[in-house]
Specification:
- The relative contact order is 0.17.
- It contains four helices and four strands.
- The chain has a domain of 92 residues.
Length: 145
């Protein structure tokens, strides 16, 4: 029986490093593109958004738009992108819909608790679908740079 072992030759090491660097760079660029598209899909409006549309931003400035982040995850070699919870905001439930417990404190010290069912307001899925045709250009000649 013959067994073959693969050993890293210096040329392969350089190629492996270049491929890893290109994967990270291209993934981060794609993540930035999806985040930008998602941020731009959120509009400032009064009231709640129609079911199935991106949520409306109600805060002053860009605070609501700035809560969408992306980062390189070295363990999975992927780029998770999405809104982060801020205070009592329910970012995941706003995206996917579901039940949310809302706690409201009154001036007299009383606490009002309500359970709301939110309709889904997707942002990240439609942003990714819109970005997919543009992502391959980030990989073109990625190792040669």
């Amino acid at each position: 029986m013959i067994t073959a072992r693969f050993t890293f030759v210096p040329e392969y090491r350089r190629l492996h490093r270049a491929a890893a660097r290109a994967k990270r760079r291209s993934g981060m660029r794609a993540g930035g593109l999806v985040r930008t598209i998602a941020r731009r899909s959120i509009r400032r409006r009064k009231g709640s958004a129609p079911r199935g549309q991106p949520p409306h931003a109600h805060a002053r400035g860009n605070r609501g738009m700035k809560l969408i982040y992306f980062a390189w995850d070295p363990q999975t070699e992927s780029v998770p992108i999405g809104p982060i919870p801020f205070g009592q905001r329910h970012a995941r439930e706003i995206q996917e819909g579901g039940l949310v417990d809302v706690i409201r404190r009154r001036r007299r010290g009383t606490v009002e608790r309500r359970r709301l069912r939110l309709a889904p307001h997707p942002v990240m899925g439609p942003a990714l679908e819109k970005a997919i045709p543009r992502i391959p250009r980030y990989w073109r000649n990625a190792i040669g740079r």
